[in-house]
Automatic annotation (TrEMBL):
Keyword Membrane among UniProt keywords: no
Gene this protein is translated from: WDR86
Keyword Protein biosynthesis: no
Name of the molecule in the record: WD repeat domain 86
Organism per entry: Capra hircus (Goat)
WD repeat copies, ranges: 11-43, 53-92, 93-132, 133-182, 183-224, 225-264, 305-337
């Protein structure tokens, strides 16, 4: 196992914890959203701060970075769109009546979920609500989108899947705003979800310590993944394998099509708060303030990254650099060169079909 080493760079400009970290599709920029009410844009080339995004009146809960625009949501009940070159706020999306938890930009639409028990679809260009999705009985925590033509003509316009603290997930017809299916079976809050869009399957993780697979068209529960001893906080879907990070201090790898557990990743000293699969390596972030690199095939721990003071809320990997964002307010860059390459026979398993993963931010460890 490799040693921890020191970070390539520590970016400590934020004055509050970092709740989320987003990488632009072209890989040139990072976006961080913080408890200090601001977001910052960073260059992946040298780790320098390119722009400070100021305007929210409360903490930033989540962010998404596109090549030409940045999007942030906040406890101030708003969403903002920003110019990535100037840092200027281009649009404020108003309508939610409580904390906005998650946002998702897809097919020129902006989707959001909130403590106000709703999800919404917005026109990215006009900043207006195009559709409201009402039906959850409690906070909507997470969401994912399956766009046309991945789903049949009966749901042209795509499907939005939401997870809530009311123990259900719901599938919505985006075009009409109608609830297509309610996914019932969990006995605790749905904290995270990922979609296998070609397979028309949703995977949900819950405080009931299970992962469940669902047919999003019929609403049928396909299988239950039972073995975790604590809340399932984050999910990653990679080539028919589901990785689940839990408050029980482990990550488990499951066969998506059967629910069979094939591997358990241990060594964490606190909840696993973030997951990212990259080129045969599974990177994890934990409440023990450390990131780890595991060989995804064998489960062997390859490297520990030490330096943060509190829980790691989000991780990204680009090129040979691991980026970790923590409740301690720092963004750290780590050199991941020298990690063992994946075995030749497993190269076919390196391509991810992950659509989205949302995990609830944790308090400081």
């Amino acid at each position: 196992m490799g040693g921890g080493g020191s970070a390539l760079r520590v970016c400590a400009d934020h004055r509050g914890g970092i709740n989320w970290l987003s990488l632009s599709p072209d890989g040139q920029r990072l976006l961080t959203g913080s408890e200090d009410g601001t977001a910052r844009l960073w260059s992946t080339a040298d780790g320098t701060c390119c722009a400070l995004l100021q305007g929210h009146e409360s903490y930033v809960t989540f962010c998404q970075l596109e090549d030409e625009a940045a999007f942030t949501c906040s406890a101030d009940c708003t969403i903002r769109k920003w110019d990535v070159l100037t840092g200027q706020c281009l649009q404020v999306f108003r309508g939610h009546t409580s904390i906005v938890n998650r946002i998702l930009v897809a097919d020129n639409q902006l989707f959001s979920s909130s403590y106000d028990r709703t999800a919404r679809a917005w026109s990215v260009d006009r900043g207006q609500v195009a559709r409201e999705f009402r039906g959850h009985r409690n906070c909507v925590l997470t969401l994912a989108y399956a766009g046309a033509p991945c789903v049949e003509e009966a749901v042209a316009g795509g499907l939005l899947v939401t997870g809530s603290t009311d123990s259900t997930a719901k599938v919505w017809q985006v075009a009409s705003g109608c609830c297509h299916q309610t996914l019932r079976g969990h006995t605790g809050a749905v904290l995270c979800l990922v979609l296998d869009v070609p397979g028309r399957t949703a995977f949900t993780g819950s405080t009931d310590a299970t992962v469940r697979a669902w047919d999003i068209l019929s609403g049928q529960q396909l299988r239950v993944f039972r073995e975790h001893q604590g809340s399932v906080i984050c999910l990653e879907l990679v080539n028919r394998h589901v990785y689940s990070g839990s408050a029980d201090r482990t990550v488990k790898c499951w066969l998506a099509d059967t629910g069979e557990r094939v591997r358990t990743f241990t060594a964490h000293r606190h909840s696993v708060s973030a997951l990212k699969y990259h080129a045969g390596t599974l990177f994890t972030g934990s409440g023990d303030a450390r990131a780890r690199a595991f060989d995804a095939q064998s489960g062997a721990l390859r490297r520990v990254f030490r330096g943060h003071a509190f829980v790691i809320n989000c991780i990204q990997v680009h090129g040979q650099v691991l980026y970790t964002a923590s409740h301690d307010g720092a963004l750290r860059l780590w050199d991941v060169r020298g990690l063992p390459p994946p075995r030749a026979r497993s190269l076919s398993r390196l391509f991810s079909n992950k659509v989205g993963c949302a995990a609830a931010p944790l308090p400081p460890a």
